[in-house]
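I am hoping you can look over what I have pasted underneath with an eye to the fold:
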Amino acid sequence: MNFLLVAINAKYIHSNPAIYSLRQFAGEQLWPSISLAEYTINQRMEEILSDIYRRKPDVIGFSCYIWNWELVQQIIGELHKLVPLLPIWLGGPEVSYEYERVFRDNPAVTGIMVGEGEETFQELVRECRELFKADAETKRAAETDGEISLKEAFGCEQIGPERRKEFYAGCEGLRVRGTVTRSGNWGYREPLSMDQIPFYISALSEQEEKQNENRILYYETSRGCPFRCSYCLSSIDKKVRLRSFELVQKELQFFLDKKVPQVKFIDRTFNCNHEHAKQIWRYIKEKDNGITNFHFEISADLLNEEELEIMSDMRPGLIQLEIGVQTTNEEALRAIHRTAKLEPLKQAVAKVHSFGNIHQHLDLIAGLPYEDLKSFRRSFDDVYEMKPQQLQLGFLKVLKGSEMFERAEEYGIVYQSKAPYEVLYTKWLSYEDVLELKKVEEMVELFYNSNQFTHTLPVLQKLFETPYELFLALAEFYEKNGYFIHSPARAYRYQILLSFVSERKPELHELFAELLTFDLYLRENAKSRPDFSRELYPYKTRMTDFYKRQTENSDVLSEYVEKGYDSKQMFRMTHMEVFYYPVWNQEVLERKALTELMKKGEESFVLFDYGKRSPLTHEASFCCVSI
């Protein structure tokens, strides 16, 4: 028997821990009956369908989430036409809470695994094997004229549809079309101890290891969440279960020994248990391999002095933190049961920022109760001023099973009928407001989260009263020039930003041309020089002489000289630029008034070294040199 578990991920870089964990928990005895297939939502439906068909599954299961649910339903419908008798099983948060609707809308679906799936899947595979064996006996009995009867083997004359339902309905944690499960509470099982959940990564085949080499690996040391955020499904599992540190440290060491590039903890609020968090942070700090990055979702206001002390001298890039601020509107926070205290949160974010070694990703959610456009603009400005490396402007998704789903009508929240069930408008936020926020969101992604303009944006901000007004003005400029329809290439965004400034303040053209030139070469050793950058030909001889001097008496590029590189090689591995404004000094750019920054000074030469990059920002190191 071949039970095929299918995952359709949002991106190739993502992996699906669920299907691997289900297979691992099923045990070695059942492994030969289980195969896995991973795809992405960016693949054509026909491509996925044909690959599934070629795998010839006897039973199939789909892992269902908001990002893949529409595509999964398409595949199910077409697959049923090709293999009408194929049992189709579903699992995951997208199908666990409205199973009756899922059955109604998808007549090909046999049943649904609800809630935590490891034990349920193990029993389901066993039952499927029995049914598969019964089908084989039926065929053999027919071929041998009843040499062995099904009644003798299975206590029945035939394994028809109703008898199959009885087999399946015996599995706790399943909802089967047309049956009532023997367990209550929607067929949920009692949760497992976290120590019973297998460490699936250690059991990957050689081929699977190779496949996951360039992917983010997901890891969990807890399930459940102590908080009751009304938009989140984790609030349903009210008890937090922790994996014992004895197991965790062995598993962390596995990642470290394998030099995995990134491990993403999927614990909902990683630091809700201080001792658990401190043990793990101390361990990865002590055993740091200089390569692996660990990602944590935390509540910043819970950070205490001891935890901050542990973080303060970690290797830059060892960890990154995702912090859900969601809103700074206190009425909205109360409505969604967020207990985070804003002032301690701001202080913790500022403290971590001061360390200069940890990437912080801060989230906002538009469309929450009691937050109108004016309020959301304040929330945006508040979070922007915290200076995160990434600011995600997200939109409320009304998830089945959440309290927000139950109270959507009360709050006047109207949302999309199909996944991802994103908000369209609320009592407080009109659809026009949402459209404005969508445009601002794209500008934040392109110009802030891209980290292309780290020196330009602080100066550009000085032209506007608030950060939100800056990104709104950018969105209007984009719309006016048709860039939302004909999206410009990444390299052309520098020119767009200069055109944006020059249209508003022509007198700032030269200053911003230098800022953008600096930001460009800070990120990459560009071969094509932008039109707005200063001509370097007049300085060519002086620059060439500088590199020749470095081979004889190096004061800047000694590491290259020690490795035997000549002046031409060093020239190609670095870049030198001439500036007349203090564009390389970010503290000055943020502190000085615009009128002071506009004062043109003497020529300064800045050397960008691409062999030395910040592990936190990936920006090249740079220094002022005399030539």
